[in-house]
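Open question from group meeting: does this chain pack into something compact, or does most of it stay loose? Before anyone orders reagents, we agreed to write out a predicted structure and look at it together. Recording both the input and the output here so the notebook holds the full record.
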Amino acid sequence: MRSLHHSRQHGLHLQDDLQVVAGAELQQAWRWELRPEGQREQLVVFRHGRADEQGQLEVRAAVLESAHGRGLVYASRAAGGQAIGYYDGTIVTPAEYSELNEDTGLRHTLRVGRAWVNGINP
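Structure tokens returned:
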């Protein structure tokens, strides 16, 4: 699996299963990091512990290149309904979504639960 090789290459341990994390912690932006910065292929890393300490790092997913472009790939097993991360941005209505284009967030808008979230400029 490429995400396993990618995590070893950057000195991060890849667990078999994702750890359970409280929903409020998933929404704390300081916990999330892309490693290595500025590269086309990266690991999505979640920081456990407190903001003022290194804490335990968990690889949640990998951003990898494919024949179809870049994609997000699970790095560990996750159970149905288990939160693997969060997506931040502006909530848009279905009507607003239908008006989006490449410059205003069409490719950056995801359906999260019942809401549409435009993450182009979080």
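Observations to bring back to the group:
The first strand starts at residue 32 and ends at 35.
The radius of gyration is 16 Å.
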